[in-house]
Amino acid sequence: MRIESDVKLDFKDVLLRPKRSTLGSRANVNLERLYGFRHARLEMPVVPVIAANMDTVGTFEMARALAAHKILTAIHKHYPVEDLVAFFNRQEAGEHRYAFYSLGILAQDLEKFEEVWRRTGGGIRWVCIDVANGYTEAFIDFVKRFRERYPDVVVMAGNVVTADITEALILAGVDIVKVGIGPGSVCTTRKMTGVGYPQLSAIIECADAAHGLGGHICGDGGCTVPGDVVKAFGGGSDFVMLGGMFAAHDESGGEIVEHEGTTYRKFYGMSSEEAMTRYAGGVARYRASEGKSTMLPARGPVDDTVQSILGGLRSACTYVGARKLKDLSKCTTFVRVTQQINEVFGPSD
Description:
By secondary structure, the protein is an alpha/beta fold. The protein has helices spanning 60-67, 81-89, 107-119, 137-149, 163-172, 189-193, 199-211, 226-234, 273-280, 303-320; strands at residues 14-16, 33-34, 45-51, 71-75, 99-103, 126-130, 154-160, 176-179, 216-220, 239-242, 256-259, 262-268, 293-297, 334-336. The chain has ten helices and 14 strands.
């Protein structure tokens, strides 16, 4: 047993210090990025925000809405083969160009991907290999084999929170390492296992490791407001994945419930009892649920939320003098704080 006593930070622990800027308007900030990847052969400008691969977020409808903003969506893995083939084969709209195919590391996950790949003529550009625990040898071995078989796709994989396994995954064939254990709004991993890492520090440390090898990271979890998205990019994230912030919209899916004149949508973690009952027949006897379910007031179309997030990013860039999103981390100085906002008249949504 050992104890690390140096300070680790979450989004709530810091603010960005403003700096002199020559930007005349938020409209002059460029949020698109053109990435080069260590392994994959793909160059395509995107706004590097990703809707999470949850069945109450990462839907086909969400992908269509976000593609209009050049934002990415990780399609959840529970769609049937026929639906996935139809989506990735669509030629009349370009939303599939901004969509990740998501899979786990079980044999049936790979078999399903191989069938969709074959029936779409290799038309999948982005792949998300997603497990709760990215520290197993089985996971790293799966990534190696996948990269050998599919050398040209962009592979995002995780989740991890430390530099050593970030480096191992990039060397194994990952282009984007997904960073975050336990910070999600419907994740109970920290409560159930005691395992985790403060998200901002995880991003900073993993980004430093990834960038030294020509890789990228995606901060996954912990963002509750646009300012948190800013801090994730400021800390070195190349991409930021959002679950709860994109939940409960018209495009999000999720069961609709009416209660006392208010419309709600169900939102739950993919390791929750609800998700495992839906897709695996219940929680296996050898494990515990590591997610929870909640009901969120329906938020309407996702476009308003998108504008809020992108508007916050543009405004932050003008505060610190970054003309493009790529420069935000170079312009970021974090200030440690004990209070974020003044809530004397109640919390603001």
